[in-house]
Amino acid sequence: MPNGQWYPPEWPARIRALDSGELTAVTPRRAATVMLLRDDPSEPGAVGPCVHMLRRRTSMAFAGGAYAYPGGGVDPRDDDHLVGWAGPSLETWAGRLGVATPAEAQAVVCAAVRETYEEAGVLLAGPSADTVVSDTTGADWEADREALVARDLSFAGFLDRRGLVLRSDLLAAWARWITPAFEPRRYDTWFFVAVLPEGQRTRNVSTEADRTVWIRPGDAADGYDRGELLMMPPTVATLRALRPYGTASKALEAADSQSLVPVLAEARMEGDELVLSWPGHDEFTKHVPAAGGSTAPAADDGTDGSPA
Length: 308
Prior knowledge:
GO molecular function, one term: metal ion binding
Radius of gyration: 19 Å
Largest sheet: 8 strands, mixed
Shape: globular
InterPro entries: NUDIX_hydrolase-like_dom_sf, NUDIX_hydrolase_dom, NUDT19
Helix content: 25-40%
Order of helices and strands: HEEEEEHHEHHEEEEHHHEEEE
Number of helices: 8
Distance between the termini: 25 Å
Protein name: NUDIX hydrolase
Strand content: 15-25%
Mean pLDDT: 87
Domain Nudix hydrolase: 28-237
Number of strands: 14
Cofactor: Mn(2+); Mg(2+)
Structural class: alpha+beta
């Protein structure tokens, strides 16, 4: 039975076009996505937390119908405006994320927290370094969330206006994947893990999703293996990595031991086959007949903000 790996049929043509020089690789955009975890309140004592996932609308140009985590591109406006900050220093975050400056680190972490708020209604921020907003469901909060989605408001500006401190101690970096060079929409994406703050709840507020679920990572990975849930390789790999942890807090604690070496797909010719692989993740390797045209597909219009 085939699994649920997302594999666009145009990829072989794009790979051949890149190899022949007909296609030029675009520069990846910085992005962030968050694996939001909670221990299942309906099953006290159950082993393993649940992760919040959304299913991308089938009409989406990128990974339509695939299950993913809340996420999206970095807003450059969050690089150059210092925000209220709690948790590890920006210098510590820059070292962990592998970026050159504290400002870049702030922008990546801001993207993770902003996208979790935009797409799940969960805000990892509070009025002080040891508090978290307890309710974001009011009309005024919703107006701000919609302004963030529309990019009428930067996340740094939102935090300032609300007098909030970003709780960087509530999330941790888990992995880093870069979209293959032959894709028209490319992202350099940091995957974070976070625990749902007490008192907050997720909402299906993403304009890009038609369904959201809380599901145990192992169950989601099993659904992918059976071909029932469509996913991209980074999603499956991170689900498998979360599977061993018995609680949400233990997964968060384990984040520092995870490698942030970027994973980038490689394409090569082996005889009459084109081989597509992700280093360190053999399960995603694809063998594709090399026959066929190499006309470069149309250029990306840049409208999709997906992170991976």
